[in-house]
Amino acid sequence: MKIAVLTLGCKVNKYESDALIFKLRELGFQADDKLEVADAYIINTCAVTNEAERKSRQMIERCRKFNDKAKVYVLGCASQNRPIQFKEKNVTFIQGVANKMEIISHLQKDEQENMAIYDLPSKYEDDLYSAQTLTRAFIKIQDGCNNFCTYCIIPYLRGRSRSRSMESVVSEAKKLPEEVKEIVLVGIDVSSYEENGAKALGALLEKLDTLGKRLRLSSMEDNLVTEEFIKRLSKLKNFCPHFHLSLQSGSNDVLKKMNRKYTTEEFLNTVILIRKYFKNAGITTDVIVGFPTETEENFKESVEFIKKVKFSDLHIFPYSKRDGTVASKLYKDLPKSVKLKRVKILEKVKEDLKKKFIEKNDIVKVLLEEEKDGYFTGYSENYIKCYIKGNFKVGDIILAKICEPKFDGVLVSLI
Questions:
Q1: Does residue 327 contact residue 373 with C-beta atoms inside 8 Å?
Q2: CATH code, domain with 112
Q3: Same structural domain, 49 and 145
Q4: Is 39 buried (19+), middle (13-18) or exposed (0-12) by CB count in 10 A?
Q5: 174 found inside a domain
Q6: What letter does residue 178 receive in the DSSP assignment?
Q7: 130 inside domain
Q8: What is the C-alpha end-to-end distance of the chain, expressed in Å?
């Protein structure tokens, strides 16, 4: 029986889908992540925006174009949020966020029941292990979120923050095949990672550093960054100096309405601290434009602050109203045209900042992850996408010189 496991959304979802594929293969199924003809489809959905939910529903129709008789199983954040939207699509079975591995048992038996939305767990569910065969491996260390930003529905769908034991994380990392050269730690809120009730991300990274693989964090919150923490990171041999710090807005008024727990001044001090220990760190961020209370003046403040920080890249999102969040109840949404106009303005700022950051770099160490269209591609330690031609193989780590812009990154040459 052939099963396609398809993923929408974040790296956490991708890790969980890979774990499902691994388990299905162990049980004798033919399973992969390709959208093609299959006997059954498992769709791991996303609900971070309305568009993400729409794409989750749309994926059902895309699957049925390959096999209209196939069984379709849905799980994840969108089905946790509004299972009825999938029931209307006549899918075979609907599950939420919790107990994702149980979808396999429902797939194995023909049953009348077609939905199971379990209570959100209070402890980390440590039953998902992903078989990694690529050069870069994602390892999930945490789930849930306690921040309750006013625009975000994820804490209501994923539950409170809960951490995986350090022993379990290190055990999975030790089992990674030799061809995996980089580990990326992922979670809904990686910054809240704890062991025995105490912050433990630094200690976890120190343990993983002994394995000799490059280490990368998927994202961080401002409240994690202290001088002690950054100093510990600077002493690691294999840590990649790329920090994804979610800003969301460069206006203090908007940050307060978002329930983000820092000011722009505090955020800038964090960036200065990082650059004190990592001179040429890549610092990327997420920005929401068009939050309901964002005035033109607020937006201008945000743009100027983003320029001041000199991010290496931005992920820009127009605000998406999510029913059930505080913002959806308190504030009236801005016109779509206003949001799109601000996105376009910020896109130009983004391209300028990327260009200036690349110009500050000369020699980079690159992990080659893929060969496509005559080029080997991969990322530098500070997360610049690099392209090179030559007699290499996937998994090589090379020292290279940046030559010129190329596609969505830069062309490099071997030193």
A1: no
A2: 3.40.50.12160
A3: no
A4: middle
A5: yes
A6: T
A7: no
A8: 49
Quick count: other Cβ atoms within 10 Å of Cβ 234?
A: 13
- What digits encode the pLDDT tens for the residues 227-272? 999 999 999 999 999 999 999 999 999 999 999 999 999 999 999 9
167: domain CATH number is 3.80.30.20
DSSP SS3 for 9 = coil
Q: Is 70 exceeded by the pLDDT of residue 354?
A: yes
The pLDDT score that the predictor gives to residue 129 is 78
Asked if 259 and 348 sit in the same domain, the reply is yes
Residue 129 belongs to a domain: no
Band of the pLDDT at 112, cuts 50, 70, 90?
low
Q: What is the mean pLDDT of the chain?
A: 95
* Residues whose CB is less than 8 angstroms from the CB of residue 108 and which lie 6 or more positions away in sequence, other chains included: 27
Return the beta strands (E) in 117-158 as ranges. 136-140, 142-143
Which amino acid belongs to residue 166? M
Q: Which domain holds residue 393?
A: 363-414
> What b/e readout covers 67-102, taking b as 16+ CB neighbours within 10 angstroms?
beebbbbbbbbbbbbebebbeeeebbbbbbbbbbee
Please check whether residue 268 lies inside any domain of the structure.
yes
